[in-house]
Amino acid sequence: MLPGDKKILAELQPYITDSLVIHKTFVDKSGKNNLEIKVVNPCKRSENAEEKRVDGWLNYISVRLSNKSFGDTLLYYNPYVAMSLIDLAESTIVVKAYSGKQAVFIPFANCGNADDDRNITYILLYNRKKYVYHIRLHGENFENYTIKDNLTEKFKDLPANLKKGFIQLVQSQYKNVIKK
């Protein structure tokens, strides 16, 4: 996190009404790793109109990974907070080993999207690097979504074994990330 980010977050504190925090722990070659994911002003789905929230002034996700010798944070500010807050489910987060190192896949969608074109965003942490990928989807009548991007080309900067595993994960998981 940059010093400027801390100042901005302090100034925006009055606009934070709710947050979702997820903690996970896993072990790899570097030892015990602690993962903290925080979504500020997350999407809320509810039958009760007063509890439902898909729109806001501020929405971001903070991902912190740390172990005894390393710590890093990624802040992703949602650029489209009008009718599209971050919708994240803990059950869709995957931690999997590639070449003896754990990769963390954090997928999320936006809850207020009002057309047949959608995006899923994946935050990927692997080998002390951070990646953010936006994957375009198209559906018919808000269902039957298919991937519009060439994933091999989109993930070209990843090691071959990780790229192959990531493509398989996205292809098997994207329908579970989007909620109606």
Question: How many beta-strand runs?
Answer: 10
Helix count, DSSP H or I runs of 4 or more residues: 3
The share of residues in extended strands comes to: 35-45%
Structural class: alpha+beta
Task: List unreliable stretches of 5+ residues.
Answer: none
What percent of the residues sit in helical stretches (DSSP H or I)?
Answer: 10-25%
Order of helices and strands: HEEEEEEEEEEHH
Q: Give a short account of the largest sheet.
A: 6 strands, antiparallel
Look at the structure and give the mean pLDDT: 88
Cα-based radius of gyration, to the nearest Å: 17 Å
Principal-axis shape equals globular
Separation, N- and C-terminal Cα atoms: 33 Å
Structure description:
The protein contains three helices and ten strands, in the order H-E-E-E-E-E-E-E-E-E-E-H-H. With 180 residues, the chain is of the alpha+beta class. Strands 5, 6, 7, 8, 9 and 10 form a six-stranded antiparallel beta sheet that branches. A four-stranded antiparallel beta sheet has the order 1-2-3-4, with no helix packed on it. A hairpin with a 2-residue loop joins strand 8 (117-126) and strand 9. The mean pLDDT is 88.
